[in-house]
Amino acid sequence: MPAQPVSFENLKVAFASKSDAELKKMYLVFALLNNKTISDIGIALTHFALKIHLPIKWIMKQTMFGHFCGGETISESVEDCKNLAKYGVESCLDYSVEGKGDEESFDSTTAEIRQTLIESAKTDYLPFGVLKITGLGDYHILIKIQAGEKLTKEEEAAFGRTKDRVDLLCKTAHDLDLKILIDAEESWFQDVVDTLAYEAMGKYNKERCVVYNTYQMYRADMLDRLKEAKRRSEEVGYKLGAKLVRGAYMEKEWQRAAELGYKSPIQPDKASTDRDYNAGVEFCIANHGQIFLMSGSHNENSNLLVVDLMNKFGIDPKSDQVFFAQLYGMSDNISFNLANAGYRVVKYVPYGPVNKVMPYLTRRAAENSSIAGQSSREFELIKREMKRRGK
Predict the structure, then answer these.
(1) If you placed Cys at 136, which of 28, 47, 97, 165 could pair as Cys (CB 3.0 to 4.6 Å)?
(2) Which of 213, 217, 214 lies closest to 274 in space, CA to CA?
(3) How far apart are the first and last CA of the chain?
(4) Helices 139-146 and 153-175: crossing angle, nearest 10°?
(5) C-alpha dihedral over 103, 108, 111, 112, to 10 degrees?
(6) Which of 162, 74, 67 is nearest to 114 (CA)?
(7) What's the rounded mean pLDDT across residues 213-229?
(8) pTM of the model
(9) Pairwise CA distance, residues 5 & 333, whole Å
């Protein structure tokens, strides 16, 4: 059991890894994000500057990129992960470059992710790898498969290569005694992603939990899908790895549903998403002999619920039965306080060349400036810590 109760208000623990200078940089980043107009203008100017090859890499590394990304390379990022590990926080290297969508880029991405696994296996603080199916294969083919359309011979061959890439990475994780997360995708080809994930679990999750699928609880049907996944895993005979998140594609889902005239799969309101997220973690922890959970949440109440459930079911915080996860550069008050209390916490640490991770940084900026209270909450905590330190 943890040595102490969890409080997300302990700022000394939350910002223990940050020097005064780093705290001031955080203040600057979240001051910008807290103003949506300035944030939008800043992102637009950055895109323009990179497009015309202005030398702004140093500025980016001191601001947005430096805060939300581990570095441009694996070796740079491992150094940041090593620093997190000093405070009991584990990491997952996340290659956040969006490829060109051709076979060469799919092979390149596969090779890079495999290298993250090889490097992770050299440490004891990088237990996970992560892959995104659309980084390994043509999503147009996935859409056709889910829609029940017949593939051409060329498409069948291409999909076969996608499956081979997924298998290579899952097998590598298995052989290196690591775990690997499969990211969620849009609903119109998520079924195909699920199939690939469960095929991998059937091969590699027999003895221990290696492969995790991701469940976006902002989908109205996702709680039932999670329960069905558990039933299937028992029937086939493998352990179910489940990463629960609220979700990432809400606007795209609404837009496509409106354009094509079908009912949106998204929950009617945030309260419904919160309800199903919490119900999902309750279901996973109640079935902890069969399901291995990663709770991917920046919501304080949901994280406290997981702590309470672990205590209720007597789950050892140091086992691999339950992990908590947050994004690098966000919600350090949650991550560091959970780790300080003895729980296993994983930070997603994105990396890649500055110009190539701009889509990721743009999403983070939009997320922080649009989610009710997200950047304001982070900004307020930073200001309180600066005051506590007398800065």
Answers:
(1) 165
(2) 217
(3) 36
(4) 110
(5) -140
(6) 74
(7) 98
(8) 0.92
(9) 14
Indicate if the pLDDT at residue 254 is higher than 50: yes
Please give the structure tokens belonging to residue 50. 């990179």
Spatial CA neighbour of 200 closest among 226, 166, 161? 166
Which residue is it, tokens 């202005």? Answer: 54
User: In the structure encoding, which two tokens stand for residue 80, read together?
Assistant: 């940041």
What does the pLDDT read at residue 77? 96
For residue range 132-148, what is the model confidence (pLDDT) as tens digits?
999 999 999 999 999 99
Going through 132-289 in order, the beta strands assigned E by DSSP cover 179-182, 211-216, 240-245
Which pair of tokens denotes residue 253?
């889902």
pLDDT at residue 3, rounded to an integer: 44
- Six-digit token pair at 49? 């500057």
In the chain, helix, strand, coil percent, each to 5? 55, 15, 30
DSSP 181: E
Contact 181, 294 (CB under 8 A): yes
The CATH number of the structural domain formed by 72-357 is: 3.20.20.220
Contact 265, 253 (CB under 8 A): yes
Helix, strand, or coil here: 235? Answer: helix
| Dist CA 93 CA 79 (whole Å) | 11
pLDDT tens digits, one per residue of 8-27? 999 999 999 999 988 888 88
Q: How far apart are CA 196 and CA 70, in angstroms?
A: 29
Note the pLDDT tens digit of each residue in 183-204: 999 999 999 999 999 999 999 9
The per-residue pLDDT for range 104-125, each reduced to its tens digit, is 999 999 999 999 999 999 999 9
Burial 341-357 (b: 16+ CB within 10 A, else e): bebbbbbbbbbbebbeb
Question: Which of 366, 299, 384 is closest to 32 using CA atoms?
Answer: 366
pLDDT of residue 309: 97
* Cα–Cα distance, 133 to 166 (Å, whole number): 7
